Amino acid sequence: MLSISSSTTTTSSVGPTNNRTHQCPNSLSPPSLFSLSRRNTRKTLHVRYNRTTNSNTAVSCGTAVLARASNEHILDPANVRDAKLKIAIIGFGNFGQFLAKTIVKQGHRVLAYSRSDYSRAAKDISVEYFSDPDDLCEEHPEVILLCTSILSTEKVLRSLPLHRLRRSTLFVDVLSVKEFPRSLFLQVLPKDFDILCTHPMFGPDSGKNGWGGLPFVFDKVRVGSDPTRTHRVETFLTIFRDAGCRMVEMTCAEHDKHAAGSQFITHMMGRVLEKLGLENTPINTKGYESLLNLVDNTARDSFELFYGLFLYNKNAMEQLDRMDWAFEMVKKQLSGHLHDLVRKQLMLETNNDPIKGEKMDRLLLPPPSENLPQIVPSADVTEQEFVAVNGSRLSTQC
Ligand code: NAP
């Protein structure tokens, strides 16, 4: 029997600062994990073991039992919140810098590396910038946070000197597609590395006034059962939880299905409307304002990001086809309606019944106006007459 208490009459004491001493010899755990606040390092967890009930298990798996107890302790939300991580951001562009600001504010140590030189931008937000990935990896960050473009992720990941990292490093990505990085990580990363796939579903624009209520999707793809590993993942997730995000745990496959039907369509519509060159008018409606905002929000993201949403989400093509279909349907609906009106008008013109004619009159389009468009007769019309939408019968040469 295992009991946990805070009394001093116990046989073993387990605290986050001496995690390594109670792990099975063959277990892999992050060697130097978290710098805990003083309040937590002082706090001691006591474990009492009753040898009479389960002594054999105790001898062979005593360390596992202790680890479980330790797990309960370090997963305590207060402890998770107080733990600080050393996080390396790879890809320090628009989104990487945006995330870094909040992570730094929460007291974590942030290192960064990118293809371009962002040393000045990094300094401004208290991030340590490395122009060489080897140097960065030799700092042994506990978390590698990949913020590269979707298209460059594989190349960047394969170029990282993984051998310089601690063998239980936690890899996290923030790509806007999820099945792709999941399978890439499983394929490229050594088995000892933990994997957390995430998608903060907001950006520098939508999250500029804080992350409260904004969705954060995550999938714990591969996390070792060792308490230090689970604790590390929870500590990372707490960054977003504490910033007020709505935490949504779902598989990468589920994410991609939902994202194609929502996020990809949003970006697609934004890009299409951008091509129309919408302009501010003196009589903007609320609806129109929201379209202008949509264009603004989506056009600010790189085209590479948009292309990645399409190319690396297998559900995106289907959504594109559905949009084509929907566009055609609405067009047909409109022209079908117009056709009905014209047909009724034709019937009225050929109907001599005065009573019926009077009834039909109410269905006619408004009186003629100079600018109203005319319905172009189809190519096979041979009679030298066609009906204009203004309701009068015109005579013309084809
Ligand atoms: P992005 O254009 O998707 O990515 C820019 C980043 O990728 C920069 O750090 C850039 O490095 C790096 N990069 C691009 N091509 C590269 C190459 N050939 N080799 C090495 N690095 C390369 O724009 P982003 O908005 O910053 O997005 C970054 C990631 O966050 C993407 O995966 C995106 O899906 C995800 N995300 C973005 C948002 C958002 O609102 N923007 C929201 C959620 C998730 P350099 O700058 O050094 O060239």
Structure notes:
- The chain folds into 4 domains: 3-71, no CATH class; 78-255, Rossmann fold (3-Layer(aba) Sandwich), CATH 3.40.50; 257-322, no CATH class; 327-395, no CATH class.
- It is 46% helix and 15% strand.
- The protein has 14 helices and 13 strands.
- It has helices at residues 38-42, 51-74, 77-82, 94-105, 119-124, 133-137, 153-159, 179-188, 227-242, 252-276, 286-300, 303-311, 316-350, 354-361, and strands spanning 2-5, 12-14, 45-49, 86-90, 109-113, 128-130, 143-146, 170-173, 194-200, 215-222, 246-249, 385-387, 393-395.
- The chain is elongated and about 90 Å long.
- It starts with a strand and ends with a strand.
- The chain binds NADP nicotinamide-adenine-dinucleotide phosphate.
- Residues 91-96, 114-116, 147-150, 152, 155-156, 174-176, 200, 203, 301-302, 304-305, 308 line the site of NADP nicotinamide-adenine-dinucleotide phosphate.
Secondary structure layout plus pairing:
Blueprint: E1 2-5, E2 12-14, H1 38-42, E3 45-49, H2 51-74, H3 77-82, E4 86-90, H4 94-105, E5 109-113, H5 119-124, E6 128-130, H6 133-137, E7 143-146, H7 153-159, E8 170-173, H8 179-188, E9 194-200, E10 215-222, H9 227-242, E11 246-249, H10 252-276, H11 286-300, H12 303-311, H13 316-350, H14 354-361, E12 385-387, E13 393-395
Parallel strand pairs: 4-5, 4-7, 5-6, 7-8, 8-9, 10-11
Antiparallel strand pairs: 1-3, 2-3, 9-10, 12-13
Helix pairs in contact: 2-9, 10-11, 10-13, 13-14
The protein binds NADP nicotinamide-adenine-dinucleotide phosphate.
NADP nicotinamide-adenine-dinucleotide phosphate (NAP) binds next to helix 4, helix 7 and helix 12.
